[in-house]
Write a structure and sequence with these properties.
mainly alpha; 7 helices
């Protein structure tokens, strides 16, 4: 456009502003949190693998002593009583699931940070899918931490749902004008 036509276009507002979802800091923040969570699950997976071929009862008793927990506590006794059920096979299975969950977090997080549209859908579906499980688990043993996580995940689902709804319905509104 020439100078006169360009200034005329600016005055009439024919140039459209970039859509609000073009660069969402909230999406990048969610992505960074997913990447951080993925890194924590990788560390947890390696921690589980380090427990292979170890005497878990002895390690747990040392931890109870170091943390100065009451070994006579009913909760501590219940945990210690369940440790013989944890064998190397179960530890390997837990580590595989932990690494798989970390991979999902890395997939979601990297896609959101790189502003990929598919990542918004993947994050919405996976977060919404795990939400009922989190709610059911917290019904049996509610804690403030679990309730905070449920609230955060519910807000992510609502935010992504609204964002994707706006994205998918914005062209239809413009076409009607």
């Amino acid at each position: 456009m020439t100078g006169k036509a360009a200034s005329s276009a600016r005055k009439t507002g024919s140039q459209t502003a970039p859509p609000i979802w073009h660069r969402s800091r909230i999406l990048v923040l969610i992505g960074m949190l997913k990447l951080l969570k993925g890194a924590l699950f990788v560390a947890l997976g390696f921690g589980l693998l380090r427990l292979l071929h170890r005497n878990l009862y002895h390690l747990a008793m040392r931890l109870v002593e170091i943390l100065r927990f009451d070994p006579g506590n009913a909760f501590i006794n219940t945990l210690l009583g369940e440790l013989p059920l944890v064998d190397d096979h179960l530890l390997r299975q837990l580590s595989v699931f932990t690494f798989a969950y970390a991979a999902l977090d890395f997939l979601e997080g990297s896609g959101l940070v790189l502003e990929k549209a598919w990542a918004e859908y993947v994050t919405l579906v996976l977060t919404a899918a795990f939400l009922p499980i989190e709610v059911l688990k917290s019904l049996h043993h509610p804690t403030w931490w679990k309730l905070l996580l449920i609230l955060a995940n519910a807000l992510i689902v609502l935010y992504l749902g609204r964002l994707l709804f706006q994205k998918n319905h914005a062209p239809a509104k413009r076409a009607k004008r």
